[in-house]
Amino acid sequence: MKKTRQPLQISLFVKYLGLIILLFIPIGILFAYSNNVATGVIGKEIRNSNIKQLSFLSSQIESRINQTMDFVFTFSKDPNVQKYNGLNIWDDNYDWMQTRYMVLEKMALQSGVVNIWPVEFTVYSQLHKEALSNSSTSVAYDEEYLKRNISKNWTYSEGATGTEGMAFRWYYADSLGQQKLTGSNLVVGASFGASNIQNMLDTYKEGGQGDPLFYAPGQKPILNRSASPELAEELTRYLDGQKLEDTMQKTIKLNGQSYLVSLVKSPQLEWYLVDPVPLDQILGPISSSRNLFYLAMALLLVIGAFFSIVLYRDVQRPILKLIRGLKKVQLGDFSARIHAKANSEFTFLFYRFNDMSAQIETLIDNVLKERLIAQEATMKQLQAQINPHFLYNCLGYMINMAQMKDEEAVVKMGYSLSAYYRYITRMEKPVSSLQDEIQLIVNYLDIQKMRNGRIHYSIDIPEEMRGQQVPRLMLQPLVENAVIHGVSKSYSSGEIRIAGRIDGGFWRIFVDDDGPGLDEEKLELMNQKMRGPMQDDMGYGLWNTNQRIIHCFGPRSSLSFSSSELGGFRTEIVWEIPKEAS
């Protein structure tokens, strides 16, 4: 016995453990895949977002610069500015002072309009060797300085006196295309300091994760005011050794961490907006959650292995005992008993198994007896429905029609008779739809109509009733009774009417004929017999139909008889509408 149980014991444990592993493998694969997808999506979004934000910041800087250049163009054409450079020596001093005042006032007004982007404007008159500026410090006219610095592009340099510090500068003159001064030029200069760029970088940093700076090869980078000098120095060394594009992104290592470095070039200044974003700081929570998930999976695997052992010991062994006992009962050994000392939920099952094995033989005998009774009842019902005389008459009709060469009548009778008997002999289902019952009645009445030309019928049952389930052969005994005991007993009769309606929560079906009918006393007697036990002097088909209706639809259903509006006999079926159909 030990040799036969050991492989089963090991096999069950391996199955439990293997099942747990198989459950974890797809979960782990799906999680790893979803984690990689999420990391990729987040990384892509970070890249796109950084480029978009830098491009937007660059466009803001470009917009400020373009506004400044537009003002310089417009300002250089201003009549007062032109007059300032072209005053004649015979003009009085008041006119001279008034022109200087107007030029200074317009530069001051322009600086006040764009105070978020302060710009110093300077007007140089080459004719008078004089300079006017809205700068807080005095600006002297230095023609050599102008010749060295006048250009189409912005430059990053010191001022004319050497005391103004580094700033972005641009000078405009009518002879700018010739790259030289003619001796009587009016030059308008604009400059702004690194603080303007720092303000923009500070605002950008407040809404992001990076540490932005403004970089140009060979120049000291402009940092935001809270930047890390060490990070900026290492990043500058890296950028100095790279061939930079107008827009680019790279993932590099800085100070031992991974950074996503995004660059966007400023077209006017030809500097680069650079934003290093620490990827470890952004993607760190995702990596931590991934590691925690894998740790939880490992712990669940250990716990699952432990529970598989406990499950085998406390569940599988008792189940094996039940299986062995059931196999004995299956082989006919009803004396099988299970003896167990364990005090658990399975103890109750063992007791119930012992009770079951003691009672099962009696139950089998009862079931066999009930099956015999049911088969006998089915046979009686089938015999009651199949009238051999009806079949003989139909076959005789077919023979006569065949002898008369009326093939159409033979075929029609054959189809109707076949459909009729095929339906009534199928006893595997106790119920069918009312539509199928109606079709059976149509086949039956067509047969009777071919045999008796006086018979004509009508069927008027609502569509909502036709799909309901009713006992099989519920209508056939009623229609057969109307044909045999109604229209067939009078040469003046022949109409059969079948109708249905919904009335006060009940479904009603009427079968009427125009035969001789019965008087009120006989009708009442028939209704009483329907409510009592089966009697020898009453029709089995009608009584059986009534019992089946009550059994199927409940005590509020019934089969009753009354006088018909056609002058003959009426049979009425009433049953309550089921809740699921209401």
Automatic annotation (TrEMBL):
One of its GO terms (molecular function) is kinase activity. The chain crosses the membrane at residues 12-33, 292-312. Gene3D superfamilies: 6.10.340.10, Histidine kinase-like ATPase, C-terminal domain (3.30.565.10). PANTHER family: SENSOR HISTIDINE KINASE YPDA. It comes from the Bacteria. The lineage of its organism: Bacteria, Bacillati, Bacillota, Bacilli, Bacillales. InterPro entries: Bact_2-comp_sensor_kinase (IPR050640), HAMP_dom (IPR003660), HATPase_C_sf (IPR036890), HATPase_dom (IPR003594), Sig_transdc_His_kin_internal (IPR010559). It is a multi-pass membrane protein. The keyword Transmembrane applies. Pfam families: HATPase_c, His_kinase. This is Sensor histidine kinase YesM.
